[in-house]
Amino acid sequence: MKILYDSVMPYAEAFFGHIGICEPFELGKISSEALANADVLLTRSTTKVDASLLECGNNLKFVGTATAGINHFDTAALDDKNITWTSAAGCNARAVAEYVLAALLYLAEQDGFLLKNKQIAIVGVGAVGKQVADIATALGMQVVLYDPPRAAIDANFSSSIFEEVLQADIISLHAPLTHNGQYPTKHMFNSDVLNSMQSSQYIVSASRGELIDTQALLDMNDDCPQLVMDCWENEPYISTDLMSRCRLATAHIAGHSLEGKARGTSILYDKLCAFLGVEKQHSLAEFLPQMDHSHELTACTQSFAHQNLNQTSLSSLVKCFYDIENDDSFFRQHMAKSESITPIRKNYPIRREFDAVDISVDDAADKLTLSSLGFSVS
Ligand SMILES: NC(=O)C1=CN([C@@H]2O[C@H](COP(=O)(O)OP(=O)(O)OC[C@H]3O[C@@H](n4cnc5c(N)ncnc54)[C@H](O)[C@@H]3O)[C@@H](O)[C@H]2O)C=CC1
Ligand SMILES: O=C(O)C(=O)[C@H](O)COP(=O)(O)O
C-alpha cells in the first residue's frame, strides 16, 4: 500500500507508517504522474484534486484532505473514478474560533468598545460558527445566527434573515465556498451588499476569500467596512491593495494551531483505518507535546491566576496563547517582499490552543466564563 501525504501534515508518518509505505510531497506540489502507483492520497487545502490530477491515479482508492474545507476537491471527478474521498470536518474549528476571539479583543481594545455591547452575526453555523457563537455568548455579546441550509435540515435550528446579518456590528464568515445550489456563497458579499453596509461595521473573513468580492471592496475606497482578513481571493497571490486596507491581515492561518493541524491528520487516520478495515494503533494524545512548568506559555498564563476577569485581563490572557498582532505584522512584512502567501503559511510557528495549559482561577464565575471560552481552568 502506497500512501502519499502532504509534508506539512503533522505526525503523518507516525500515524500511517504501519498501514503502508508513506511518501511525503512538498506542500501542495503533487503531479498526476506521481499518483501512478499510489493507493492513498492525503492532502491539505493547497492541492487541487481534479480530473487532470487524477488522470494517472488509476490505483487510487482513498483521497482525504486534512482540512475542513473541501472546495479544492472536484468531488464529481473523484466519484467518476470510484475513489472514496473524505475531509477532516471540524478538525480546526477550535483554532478558528480562538482566532476570531483574538481579533475581536484586538478591535475592542483599539477602538475602545466593550464586546458585551456589540452584536455579532455568524454566517454559517457549523463546526466553526457554533464555537464562535459559544464564545460570543460567553462574552455577553448579542448573537445573530445565519445558516439557511442548516435550518432546512435541522428542525432544532432556526436561521435569521440576511437583512439582520447586515445590521450587526460585526459579521463573522464561516460558510464554505460554494458556487451552486440554493445558497451559493461565492461573492455572497458583492458590491450591492457591501454598499448597503456602514464603514463602522466589521467583517471577519476566515472561511474562504471568495465569499467577498475583492474588487467591490477595493472600489469602495474609504467607505468599506473594517476588515479582518485571514482568507483571500486568489490565494496564494492575494491583493496587497486590499491587505493595506485591512485592520488585521493574516495568511490563512486561522486554523493553524498545532492541535488543529494534528487533528486533521488524526481524523484521516481514523477514517482510513475504518475504510481499510485495519485496526488503529495510534491516537493523537500520543503525539501532542504536553506543556511543562518551564514552558513560556505556562509561565505567561500563571500571571493571570489571581486577577479578576474583565475584557482587559482576558485580552492579556488570550495574547499568551495567540497574539494576532504578531501574525498581522509578520504577514505585512512578508508581503512587502513576496508575491505569495505560501512561504509564510509553510513556516508558521507552533501555536497551541487555549486548553493546552491548565490555568488556576480563584473566582467561581470567572472559572465558568473562561471554561466557556475554551480554557482549561482549575
Ligand atoms: N481560515 C481557516 O484556516 C479555516 C477556514 N475554514 C473554512 O470555514 C468553512 C466552515 O468550516 P466548518 O464550520 O468546519 O464547516 P461546516 O461544514 O461544519 O459548517 C459550515 C456551515 O455553513 C453553512 N452554510 C453553507 N452555505 C451557507 C450560506 N449560503 N449561508 C449561510 N450558511 C451556509 C452550512 O449549512 C454549515 O452549517 C470551511 O468550509 C472552510 O472553508 C475552516 C477551517 C479553517
Ligand atoms: O481547514 C480548512 O479548510 C482550512 O482552511 C485550513 O485551516 C487551512 O488549510 P491549509 O491551506 O493549511 O491546508
List keywords for this structure.
378 residues, alpha/beta, Rossmann fold, Ribosomal Protein S8, Chain: A, domain 1, 3 domains, 6-stranded parallel sheet, 5-stranded parallel sheet, 13 strands, binds 1,4-dihydronicotinamide adenine dinucleotide, binds ligand LXYGBJRG, cytoplasm, EC 1.1.1.290, Erythronate-4-P_DHase_dimer, D-isomer_2_OHA_DH_cat_dom
Order of helices and strands: EHEEHEHEHEHEHHEHEHEHEHHHHHEHE
Name the ligand types. 1,4-dihydronicotinamide adenine dinucleotide, ligand LXYGBJRG
Rg to the nearest angstrom? 21 Å
How many DSSP helices? 16
At the first level of CATH, what is the class of the largest domain? Alpha Beta
Structural class: alpha/beta
Largest sheet: 6 strands, parallel
State the end-to-end distance.
46 Å
The quaternary state of the protein chains shown equals single chain
Low-confidence stretches: none
CATH superfamily of the largest domain: NAD(P)-binding Rossmann-like Domain
Question: Strand order, biggest sheet?
Answer: 7-6-8-9-10-11
Keywords: Cytoplasm, NAD, Oxidoreductase, Pyridoxine biosynthesis
Family: Belongs to the D-isomer specific 2-hydroxyacid dehydrogenase family. PdxB subfamily.
Subunit structure: Homodimer.
Protein name: Erythronate-4-phosphate dehydrogenase
